[in-house]
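Complex 415.
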Amino acid sequence: MITCNPSRILQRIEDFGKIGQNERGGVDRPSFSLADVEARQTLIQLLQERQLQVTVDPIGNIFAKRKGKYDAKPSILLGSHIDSVPNGGKYDGMLGVLVALEIIEMLDEHQIETNHPIELVSFTAEEPNPYGLSTLGSRTLTGKLRYEHLIDVVGRNQDALKDAVLRVGGDLEAMKEGYSVAPGAYTCFIELHIEQGMRMVKSGVPIAIVTDIVGIYRDHIKIIGELNHAGTTMMEDRKDALVAAADLITFIDQTCRKNGIVGTVGQMDIFPNAVNIIPGQTELVVELRAGSKEKIYQTRDEIHRKLSELKERRGVDAVITNMLDQDPVPMDPDVISHMQNVCEQKKLSYMMLSSFAGHDATHLASVTKAGMVFVPSKDGKSHCPEEYTDIRDIATATDMIFETVLRIDQSMERS
Ligand SMILES: [Zn+2]
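Predicted structure with zinc ion bound:
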């Protein structure tokens, strides 16, 4: 049985974790930073040493192709991203790229010739960045962001995106006549990522197969009451916009628990926000996430009904503006069933999970069969220096993906 080399993976996690490491032990490696450039160069060098065909596309995505028996066949694509949030960890994104590299090395060491080329990808700027464009590389590759969306973008740091892209070996001008992945260019895409939550830790399983990436829905809600003197206005005469908002927020929390989805009010403004004035207006944003659109809409409708009731009971008015209504993205059933079969035959304990965070796989799913595997995040922590995943879990997941890749290579031979 072919297995990965856990100490080699661990060494690379540590090595890359030092690129951009700050004094608190966190990783500061936002896309286009000096640390990002250094990590890219280090990665490219590792890839070239393995005789892979390395290319950088116009947005700076790095690809490395291992030849297949039939080189014209669409590649099996594996990877993630190597940029980090400020003061992030060593695992988010980076792990998916290092596991892709490990799988290529396993194939090399055992001189396995696959039918399809196997291709590693490291996507540009997956994390939020000063240009306001997260998942930049995967959205550009899949044609969702085009030349005209990008060429005039200037970051909060006053740095033009086109200059930043040049620093990482891309060139937006090369996209002028259009750039996106050719239809059928990939057999599938598989991304390994840390879970970034508590569900796997609580279940004690090393592997989760992702069923879908949740839909995200956001409403901006303005509640209009009546501002008045906080001393002279008796309780029964008030139209307090904040008290109505507080009722609504509590209701949102309860309803999301009841419906088994997640919902958050993470942003709120109070007007005029003064100690002796009854709040005349509040503006808040409610965000709902779930794998099922029906559950999102059901929860939204309950929230809207609650708002009507509050208007009646608290004498306020309300204006609802929808800001975002992003569909859930299912992962590919063929990829999922290959993964399940591998887990069952190898007697690996695993669970099926929705991803509540967005990933590059969200976008790849629009052009190829996309699948994701999660490994546990210790204490559910991510986007912080404490990010940690046990190497045994990483090794288990790597071997599972390796076997899945071989099966997909065989079964999708004619594709
Ligand atoms: Zn990530």
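Residues 293-314 form the longest helix (22 residues).
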